[in-house]
Amino acid sequence: MTAPSGARPDEERLAALVRAHDRWRGRDVFNLLPSENALSATARKYLASDLAGRYTLPIEVEREGETLANSYTGTRYTDEIEAIGNAAAARLFHGRFATVRPLSGHIAALSALVPLLPPKSRLLAIQPDEGGYDGYAPGFIPAVFGYTVRPLPAAGPGHRVETEAAVSAIQRERPNAVVLGQSFFLFPYPLKEIAEAAHGIDALVFYDASHVLGLVAGGEFQDPLREGADVLYGSTHKSFPGPQGGVLVTEREDLFRQIDPALVWRIFDNAHWNRIAALTQTLLELERFGRDYARTIVENSQALGRSLSSLGLPLVAEAEGFTRSHQLHLDPARLRAAHGIGPAALARRLEKQRLLIDLVARIGTAEATRLGLTPAEMPRLAELLVRGGLKRERVGAEVLAWRRTYRGLRFT
Ligand SMILES: Cc1ncc(COP(=O)(O)O)c(C=O)c1O
Asked: Which domain range does residue 264 map to?
């Protein structure tokens, strides 16, 4: 990445920053942030394609007595790109109707909620203090769109949703919609029972798969639409290794007919067609490689959990095998008691040693799995995390040398 000739100082600096970032995040660290992933080379190429600067708006408008099918010209290829993406998303997530247009996981949530739930609707959603997404807290999406929200209970340090507690909350609160999905997401939900209870009171079930979308695509974790969710949506860049963006899938034509026409001009306008090409490529790659990818992620998470725990790093849900997803959660109370350090300080210490975990106690294995790490490498990764994080050893050079042995990505 070099600045153009004759560039001004800010342009030179910009080129240097992007170059440095690419080297740092692309080659010099192990990224264990559960919210991120690495794009395949083909998907990256599509992101940088000419599509990045184009518009298409395949929606009928009346202008001067004429019905126009699109407001733009030059769009002869975009419709087919989108159609391939929508069909792949529908196949992968076992629905009949899909849209790859939502610009992010948050926008995918709005794409489901806003068209289907009028103001004053009542939501039941897992709240942030129990691992839920902050967007579903009263001050955010509910405040903006006039919803009331009550907590769907999740229990214990692993923030698990238990059948009995969830069903009785549904029967007690009688919401219009139940929103499942968490930012701290270790275990699948008893979805069949939750959906039965929700449908018994005519409530919709939304499954926010932002974190686990790549696992669902590969047949791991759970199969939300087949287990009773009405709409599945989420981010396409966490365990799903696509471009930053969103997707929405449903089996129900009646719902999709309300959702799809309502998106443009209410939730977004331009859907970013380079992103859609890159997302479509990733969907197609996961149709081929998703099973191995998702299974390896879960195996890596569980193996890393065992190794970390045996080296004295306290994690939640040990008795349940730590996790069924791409995430592991540090146990902050036991971490402080045993080692006198909190998760954020630990993460900052590890960052200096080229190991990235997040500041809120989550460790993720999706990107490491893409790089090619397998359960056989998890003891070594755990040892570096413990030496760098708990023993304050300077393991950065060792991490760098090891990281440099991974070139390219698997499952593409
Ligand atoms: C459960 C959940 N839903 C939605 C989002 C928002 O996703 P995005 O950042 O793609 O808008 C997040 C982000 O972390 C999330 O954890």
From this structure: 44-283
